[in-house]
Amino acid sequence: MSTPETVDRVLLTAAVVMIVVAGLLLLIRIRRGPSMLDRAIALDVSAALIIAGLGAKSAFSRDPYYFPIMMVLAFLGFTGSVGIARFIAVRDRPTPQETKEGTE
Fold this sequence. Notes:
Elements: H1 3-32, H2 36-61, H3 67-91, H4 96-103
Helix pairs in contact: 1-2, 2-3
């Protein structure tokens, strides 16, 4: 194995270790919360970590097979984030009665 290949493997291994550590910290954030928005953001980041893991696997095996899967997961993660944000925005919107009370 040549020096560039060794450096490549070491960097990919370090990237996978960092992804695993980030996943463990993400599980802690999902469990602790404290709000629903924190958990929603953590789930969105989990989609990004899955994509990063697939990218590392693809680079490790030098196989471009996972790129379309990564694109689909990125699209699903984006639409899920937008849906959650819209749900939280509607849920947290003040009612007309609350708005009236705040102006008096």
